[in-house]
Design brief:
Layout lengths: L6 H20 L1 E6 L9 H16 L3 E6 L6 H12 L4 E4 L5 H10 L4 E5 L8 E6 L1 H15 L4 E6 L4 H17 L4 E6 L6 H13 L4 E4 L5 H9 L2 E6 L10 E7 L2 H13 L6 E4 L6 E3 L8 H15 L10 E2 L5 E3 L7 H5 L15
Parallel strand pairs: 1-2, 1-3, 3-4, 4-5, 5-11, 6-7, 6-8, 8-9, 9-10
Antiparallel strand pairs: 10-12, 13-14
Helix pairs in contact: 2-9, 3-4, 5-6, 5-10, 7-8
């Protein structure tokens, strides 16, 4: 026997269905594409911490997802398209090599908002963002220049793109500002994340006399080698002290949390707009792990002064006089490189040994 619902029960049922529908519609889906594993303890790890910050801020109003260890190129385009096709309203693609795949997918899904890290191509539904990592490199370069005994600083580098070249140049600029005898040796591994290659590169640099190791790669392997060989090192993207408690001088920390929360909020509020963001020490996108207690207090104070001067605009890591490897003046005294020149940097400054790969 079937019973008819009373009018108020019908109203209640309809209201419940509408509420359930509104809750479902309110959930914002945010996707992330990582070039490395979230357990790299470096670049991808820090982006994933930003994803978790979104989840912590918005709770069940947001659903986040990620795909890790995505190769740059066709594989990236496939992954990005899958996220866009599965209802994600905002997608962060977090590696330079994801730039063109992001643009291609964005054209196919104009209603989806995309954020591409470290790139320079934008569209109506594509923003770009990056951190001024070179500011952090200048601060730690000051410490490296003071702490080296051999006057050789080693640098494990990923790919010869402007972002990485800026970091190399900023490091030696700072090191030579406090120690004119310092030189910087580079080993390129042509990978963002390959612990084996990174470790071998660090060993090669130490064998060549380097007693401070920096890196623009994503695993803690170079720092672990520094710990094993009794030299200094600097953590990359996150605090890696747990891997090298004696060796780590500090770490440059990539802090995406506030940016990711703000951009997600913009999508939820309906006021997201395409833009370019390039934050540094002053904005908090670039920060530092605690200084190693073994660093003399005077050196820590000097580094802190450099950090403050960069933050308040009194010091620019690429202010003149700036000379390239050949001794040619790139920036006259009293001037500084503008952002356009920084974004296209394709030369070594004085103090860097070897040739820049094509």
């Amino acid at each position: 026997m079937t019973k008819r619902l009373t009018p108020w029960l019908c109203t209640l049922a309809a209201t419940g269905a509408l509420l359930a529908g509104s809750v479902a519609q309110a959930e914002t889906k945010v996707g992330f594409v990582y070039v490395g594993p979230v357990g790299d303890h470096g670049w991808s790890y820090r982006h994933d911490q930003g994803r978790k910050a979104i989840q912590a801020e918005f709770g069940d109003r947001v659903k986040t997802s990620f795909v890790e260890s995505v190769n740059e190129g066709p594989d990236a385009q496939r992954v990005i398209r899958q996220l866009a096709a599965s209802g994600h309203e905002l997608i962060f693609t977090t590696s330079f090599g994801f730039m063109n795949p992001t643009l291609k997918v964005a054209k196919q899904f104009p209603q989806v908002k995309f954020e591409h890290a470290t790139g320079y191509k934008r569209a109506a539904n594509v923003s770009t963002y990056a951190a001024r990592f070179y500011e952090g490199r200048y601060v730690v370069g000051t410490v490296a220049g003071r702490m080296t005994k051999s006057n050789i600083v080693g640098y494990v580098a990923s790919f010869p793109i402007p972002e990485v070249v800026r970091g190399i140049n900023a490091t030696i600029q700072a090191a030579r500002a406090v120690n004119p005898a310092a030189v910087l040796k580079v080993v390129w591994v042509n990978s963002w994340y390959d612990p084996g290659k990174e470790a071998d590169a660090a060993k090669t640099l130490i064998d060549q006399g380097a007693d401070v190791i920096l890196q623009h790669t994503d695993s803690p392997a170079p720092l672990q080698v520094a710990e094993q060989r009794g030299v200094w090192g600097v953590g990359q993207a996150s605090d890696m002290r747990g891997f090298a408690p004696k060796a780590q001088l500090t770490a440059i920390i990539d802090n995406w949390d506030e940016y990711y929360v703000a951009r997600t909020q913009a999508v939820m509020d309906g006021n997201w707009a395409s833009r370019n963001t390039w934050g540094g020490i002053q904005s908090g996108m670039v920060s530092f792990a605690d200084w190693n207690a073994a660093i003399p207090a005077a050196i820590v104070a000097e580094a802190e002064q450099v950090k403050t001067a960069i933050s308040n605009g009194k010091l620019h890591p690429f202010q003149g006089p700036l000379l390239n490897q050949q001794g040619e003046v790139i920036v006259e005294a009293g001037a500084k490189l503008n952002d356009e020149a920084l974004l296209g940097m394709n030369f070594y400054v004085q103090g860097v040994e070897g040739s820049l790969p094509n």
